[in-house]
Amino acid sequence: MKILFLFTAGLMFLCTSTDGSASMRYVNARAVPSTDHYLDVVPIEEALTSSVMCVKLCATDVRCLSINYHKNKTCQLLDTFYCKDDTYVLKPKSGFKYMDVDFNRSPDELNQYQNSVDCVSRNRCSPKCTDCSLRSGYHNRIDGYIDQTAAIIEVTTRATSSGCRNYCISNYYSVCRAIVYYAAIQRCTVLSLTRDMANPDSFKQSVDFEYRQRWCT
């Protein structure tokens, strides 16, 4: 993957495949207002590198959704993000900053969130943190699945796609954001993330899988 710098109001890159055939996308990482804090979860990877290279590592790891970065160049890649779970806390620790990572978001959209009261007062600075109410309905089918273990709430068996959708709503109404149904083996995967929250490379296109995302308004 080729990564080109666009600007550094935050850290934003333009990414394409090495042969240039893939559609271009943006990757943006910005620290939340609370400096000297980190997200208290177990990192999936840790390295000593610059902040720019840390974001590059995140952009090329499909599991990465946010970053803890220390001024001593400690880079921690995380497979979750602060506002995903109400039990998560940003803990104080000198030298650390927590950075939300977003994909395919325009600078104008990101700036709206960065300047919001929710960001300034609650560190909810990413479009992923939008407060909306999950509904019982679903968007139209998309062929494919999210290949990201951290997104999975449960894998179960259901005879039909509609049964899978109903299971999501009946058992995980407030946290299930999407489902993937694999009809060949009647496998129903309940997800806490939507494909627009995850790294775009984690979504795999396949006619064998049915991805459906719940309405959230």
TrEMBL record:
Domain Apple per the UniProt entry, residue ranges: 132-216
Identification of the protein by name: Apple domain-containing protein
Keyword Metal-binding appears in the UniProt entry: no
Secretion signal, residue range per the UniProt entry: 1-20
Organism of derivation: Patella caerulea (Rayed Mediterranean limpet)
The entry's keywords: Signal
InterPro entries xrefs: Pan_app
